């Protein structure tokens, strides 16, 4: 198979290149950031992408968002996410996007055998789905409790919103700036999957999620 690797850690990236080539795969590009991943895939049109989640420039979820973008543009592209983290929102979106091409999500520190990893890559490249059980567990937990993804401070802010407090009052109560409160609220909306929409009030929907939980 023709493979593109996206991993910002140089030693791990080069190790993956050597490993996959040893097992007969052709690594057509290996890159260290999300924009380069998109460019490499569009240039080389590989069979499968192996990508980390947290990559430059922001080290948050750039690799996973790049994979989603590429799946939208190239539905037949197989994607194997290899990460230390479960980025729950985009992981759920990626796994829900299955349209014939293979998908996988493995956690780096739970892979105990190189052949196990290569076998997973082969299955994903052949159109299968390979997901670490821990990823499944965290996604199911998120589905049961939407507030589980919030930090303690974000839960505190959401509780004050549920009490009807305005941003200025929340800032006074928590001894932080209004800008910090606004940032917490933006994170809450993102983690509760509440994108901007003309016909909905996200603050009210967030409170309803809080009350249900």
UniProtKB/TrEMBL annotation:
<dbReference type="InterPro" id="IPR039420">
    <property type="entry name" value="WalR-like"/>
</dbReference>
<dbReference type="GO" id="GO:0003677">
    <property type="term" value="F:DNA binding"/>
</dbReference>
<dbReference type="InterPro" id="IPR016032">
    <property type="entry name" value="Sig_transdc_resp-reg_C-effctor"/>
</dbReference>
<dbReference type="Pfam" id="PF00196">
    <property type="entry name" value="GerE"/>
</dbReference>
<dbReference type="InterPro" id="IPR058245">
    <property type="entry name" value="NreC/VraR/RcsB-like_REC"/>
</dbReference>
<keyword id="KW-0597">Phosphoprotein</keyword>
<keyword id="KW-0238">DNA-binding</keyword>
<feature type="domain" description="HTH luxR-type">
    <location>
        <begin position="143"/>
        <end position="213"/>
    </location>
</feature>
<dbReference type="InterPro" id="IPR000792">
    <property type="entry name" value="Tscrpt_reg_LuxR_C"/>
</dbReference>
<dbReference type="GO" id="GO:0006355">
    <property type="term" value="P:regulation of DNA-templated transcription"/>
</dbReference>
<dbReference type="GO" id="GO:0000160">
    <property type="term" value="P:phosphorelay signal transduction system"/>
</dbReference>
<feature type="modified residue" description="4-aspartylphosphate">
    <location>
        <position position="52"/>
    </location>
</feature>
<keyword id="KW-0805">Transcription regulation</keyword>
<dbReference type="Pfam" id="PF00072">
    <property type="entry name" value="Response_reg"/>
</dbReference>
<protein>
    <submittedName>
        <fullName>DNA-binding response regulator, NarL/FixJ family, contains REC and HTH domains</fullName>
    </submittedName>
</protein>
<feature type="domain" description="Response regulatory">
    <location>
        <begin position="2"/>
        <end position="123"/>
    </location>
</feature>
<dbReference type="InterPro" id="IPR001789">
    <property type="entry name" value="Sig_transdc_resp-reg_receiver"/>
</dbReference>
<keyword id="KW-0804">Transcription</keyword>
<dbReference type="InterPro" id="IPR011006">
    <property type="entry name" value="CheY-like_superfamily"/>
</dbReference>
């Amino acid at each position: 198979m023709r493979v593109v690797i996206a991993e910002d850690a140089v030693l791990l990236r080069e190790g993956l290149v050597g490993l996959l080539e040893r097992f007969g795969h052709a690594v057509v590009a290996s890159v260290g950031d999300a924009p380069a991943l998109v460019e490499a895939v569009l240039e080389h049109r590989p069979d499968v992408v192996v990508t980390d989640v947290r990559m430059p420039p922001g080290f948050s979820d750039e690799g996973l968002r790049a994979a989603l973008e590429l799946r939208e543009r190239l539905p037949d592209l197989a994607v194997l996410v290899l990460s230390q983290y479960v980025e729950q929102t985009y992981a759920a979106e990626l796994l829900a996007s299955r349209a014939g091409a293979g998908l996988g999500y493995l956690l780096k520190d739970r892979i105990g055998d190189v052949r196990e990893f290569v076998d997973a890559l082969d299955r994903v490249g052949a159109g299968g789905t390979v997901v670490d059980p821990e990823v499944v567990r965290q996604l199911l937990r998120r589905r049961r409790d939407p507030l589980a993804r919030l930090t303690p401070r974000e839960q505190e802010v959401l509780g004050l919103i549920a009490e009807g407090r305005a941003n200025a009052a929340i800032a006074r109560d928590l001894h932080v700036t209004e800008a910090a409160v606004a940032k917490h609220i933006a994170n809450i909306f993102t983690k509760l999957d509440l994108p901007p929409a003309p016909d909905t009030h996200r603050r009210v929907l967030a409170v309803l999620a809080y009350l249900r939980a």
